[in-house]
Amino acid sequence: MSAAKLRENTAGYVLLLPSLLILLVFVIVPIFYSAGLSLFSWDMMRPSPLFIGLDNYMNLFQNKSFYNSLLRTLLYAVMTVPASMILSLGFALLLDKGLRLALSIYRSLFFAPIVTSTVAISVVWMFIYHPDYGMANAVLKWVGLEPLRWLNDSRTALISLAIMAIWKHIGFCVVIYLAGLQGIPTDIEEAAKMDGAGLTRILLSIKLPLLTPTVFFLLIYLTIEQLQTFTQIDVMTKGGPAGSTELIVMHLWNYAFERFQMGYASAIAMVLLGIILLLTWVQMRLVGRKVHYQ
Questions:
Q1: pLDDT tens-digit series, residues 202-249
Q2: CA gap 257, 96 in Å, rounded
Q3: Cα–Cα distance for residue pair 49/37, rounded to 1 Å
Q4: Which of 193, 210, 195 is nearest to 93 (CA)?
Q5: What's the start-to-end Cα distance of the chain, in Å?
Q6: pTM for this entry
Q7: What is the dihedral of CA 223, 228, 232, 234, to 10 degrees?
């Protein structure tokens, strides 16, 4: 290796070092620490944890509340991920058509919910869902429907949280879709128009196939994001009413910081990590092979 190449590689590693250190300290080390702690019984009061092997995992898989929280989490992801991706694709296609000069403004408007504090957004949506003076019930009354107890009814609480999550993630997805649409070569679309292709044919045969890398990225990102939902539940419902919104991370939180069963909570975290890795692998196997890269 030449001296110039060595200096170039060294400079690259030096520039990567701060990010790698952050990744090591705040991601990799905690994962291994949690994996080790899941083999112990520890209530944070004893000076040292008690090794119990796989007992936490055995208790976990015998706990009905764990399965319920896992099923609610998967249901929540199914409600939010497809809806966010489909609605945001529609908005992105509308914005991409004839609004190129104002794209920076629209990107900023759509991206605002992503950079806004989730706690602040949750408080605003609590007012929207208020059963007495909330905007949601005002709209229902205006169209002649009966008001709902949105967050206070176990039948509607999870759906209410899903609606908020869809709204919050649409902006991010729109911006990513717009970036993908702007990256499609214009000469391909122009050639298709010259061959007599209409808007629908261009969308189905050109834009959507060339957008598959973007769709694939959003599918994996949103799935991982929704499986780890916590903040809005902690602020808006605390897992209620009657446990109807206790998703798996909220379940983990309750065992870790209310019951102080840190080993058991670490076992939940490891199972959640395994589920995320498994779902990501399945998505890459089933969807990844259908991605068209230019």
A1: 777 777 888 888 999 999 999 999 999 999 999 999 998 988 999 999
A2: 47
A3: 8
A4: 210
A5: 33
A6: 0.89
A7: 160
